[in-house]
Amino acid sequence: MGDTMRMKKIISAVMAVAVAVVMLACGSMDVFAAGGDPSANGTDLDSLAPAETMGLVITGNPLSGQKGFLGNIFYLTKAQIAGIKDSRSTSGYGTGSFWLGDTVYSSHDPHGTGHYHYTRVEGLDLRAMLSALGTDTAKVRSLYYSTSDNYPGTIADHVFSGRYYYPPGSSGQGGIRYPVIAMYKSETSSGTSVGTSLPAAPEKLAAGDEVFIFGQKTSDESNNCLFAKHVDAVILNIGSFTDRVTSGNITGILRVNDLMELGIYRTSYSYSDGTAVVTDHPEGVPLTAVISKMGLTSVMNSAGAARAAFISADGSEIRTVKKADAAKCFAAWGYSDGKTASSSQNTQFMLYMPGSVRDDTVLENFRTISFIDADGKVTGTSKNIRTIAKPSLVSAGKKSSGRAVVRWKKVSGAAGYQISCGSRKISAAGLSKTVSGLKKGKTYKVKVRAYKMIDGQKVYGKYSAIKKVKV
After folding, report:
1. 226 and 126 in one domain?
2. Which carries the bigger pLDDT value, residue 454 or residue 102?
3. Is beta strand 245-247 parallel, antiparallel or unpaired with respect to 366-372?
4. Are residues 106 and 222 in the same domain?
5. Of 339, 372, 405, which residue constitutes the final position of a domain?
6. Which of 19, 248, 253, 381 might form a disulfide with 244, Cβ 3.0–4.6 angstroms?
7. 237: Cβ–Cβ under 8 A, 6 or more apart, which residues?
């Protein structure tokens, strides 16, 4: 027993010394707070699964939506939608009560001789929901909605006023009707509104079959064709709502609801802010999923694409990564831990990239993704993304037989320069270069361009104007 106790004490002493040694060693190296090592940024994305699945998202301006970098997103997951539907209650979601009990809506369609429809519904009252979120519905001039099977529609006027229920056989208004997302529904219809019976009690709709329904301005307004099944997104005042993700390689846009359809992912990225390591917990979707949804996978995989370039909404910020590192990037619409975005974040999107400092890791106000070649040309187009200015070529003249000297003005931020002389490309570090090996009597076209080093690769700007040199 005594030997055993002595051995335990010896082991404990050895472990204590080992811990002390590690702590002393850490004094001369980075010690990362909870969240981690910047070198691990984005390495988990290949295996990352969605934390939740989006059921309904509402966004736009004006909206006090609780979620997102700008606080203008409100969403319910599919699990929450199922819970609301089962309980016929919206309590417990931090937005007050916005459940609409058994209510009849009238509608009309113009097909053939026309039909009058009467629909009994229970579901989510959008006006009550927005009001509970602190949104002034009087400022909502249009309401765009879309579905999981890409059937969009718009109420272009009288969104929360001037729309009514018209009882069978009457042109008189039977009560105001606000837009609703029906979770329970039943319907009757006929070629005339006179004598049409009202439907039986509404029945529960299957998961994902929720229907967007709204009232009429007049008894014969053909609004029935605009009722949308499988509704999963609503955007307020879409005409003035410009937040989106675009690409320089192809046309088309994705809005936040399109990204959220891919799943609600949560991860973490760490970076140095100059004094300490900070860990952000963004909520969004891996960039590779965005690339796939935009139809950019084949562009990314093409031989001409060397890098991925990311541009801010105002075009003032450009970041590039090796195209292989696009798999470590994350398109975010908010934080998962309640963190407040900086005042310079004024769009819905932020991009996280593999990096060790904030400027390399975070691109605020992310808007555009393009795949480019080593010269900055956007793959599949004639456009170029230039990250550095072109130099001004001062002179290019003969120095002696078979040689010429080229001089240019300094470009701010340049890591070096490249001279094009005929078919040759010559690197230079300063502001002049003597080019040798030229053939006597031949005229050469000379131009120069600057480059930056990004992730260990040269990213070139535009060439200067051409000067001719006769040897």
Report:
1. yes
2. 102
3. parallel
4. yes
5. 372
6. 253
7. 60, 61, 62, 139, 140, 141, 142
pTM score of the predicted model: 0.79
* Residue 158 CA: distances (Å) to CA of 67, 125, 142, 190: 27, 16, 8, 26
The tally of CA atoms less than 13 A away on the side-chain side of residue 322 is: 9
Which pLDDT band holds residue 174 (cuts at 50, 70, 90)?
A: very high
Task: Clarify whether residues 300 and 262 are in a common domain.
Answer: yes
User: Measured between alpha carbons, how far is 166 from 251 in angstroms, rounded to an integer?
Assistant: 43
Exposed/middle/buried for 163, CB within 10 Å: 0-12, 13-18, 19+?
buried
- Reported confidence tier of residue 32, pLDDT bands at 50, 70, 90: very low
Report the number of distinct structural domains present in the chain. 3
- Is residue 151 located within the same domain as residue 259? no
Same domain, residue pair 317 and 357: yes
Identify the pLDDT of residue 456.
Answer: 67
- Yes or no: say if 130 and 140 are a contact pair by the CB < 8 Å rule: yes
With respect to residue 386, please indicate whether it lies within any of the assigned structural domains. Answer: no
pLDDT surpassing 60 at residue 159 = yes
User: Do 232 and 110 share a structural domain?
Assistant: yes
Is the predicted pLDDT of residue 23 greater than 60, yes or no? Answer: no
CATH code of the domain in which 416 resides:
2.60.40.10
Per-residue pLDDT tens over the stretch 82-139: 999 999 999 887 678 999 999 999 999 998 888 999 999 999 999 999 998 889 999 9
Structural domain containing residue 399: 393-470
Whether 402 and 438 have beta carbons less than 8 Å apart is answered as: yes
Cβ contacts of 2 within 8 Å, gap of 6 or more: none
**Is residue 117 domain-shared with residue 147, that is, in the same domain?**
yes
Closest CA to 264 of 333, 217, 205: 333
3-state secondary structure at position 436 = strand
Six-digit token pair at 64?
A: 């006090």
* Domain-ending residue, one of 372, 403, 431: 372
The encoded tokens of residue 451 equal 């480059």
Residue 63 CB-density burial (10 A; 0-12 exposed, 13-18 middle, 19+ buried): buried
Residue range 325-336: mean pLDDT, rounded: 97
Quick check: 159 and 126 in contact, CB under 8 A?
no
For the chain, give the mean pLDDT: 88
Please identify which residue in the block is written with the tokens 């080992």: 18
Q: Does residue 332 share a domain with residue 218?
A: no
Pairing assessment for the beta strands 211-213 and 307-312 based on DSSP bridges: unpaired
CATH number at residue 341: 3.90.420.10
* Domain presence at residue 213: yes
Kindly state the tokens that stand for 248. Answer: 């320089």
Q: Does a structural domain hold residue 144?
A: yes
pLDDT at 437 over 70: yes
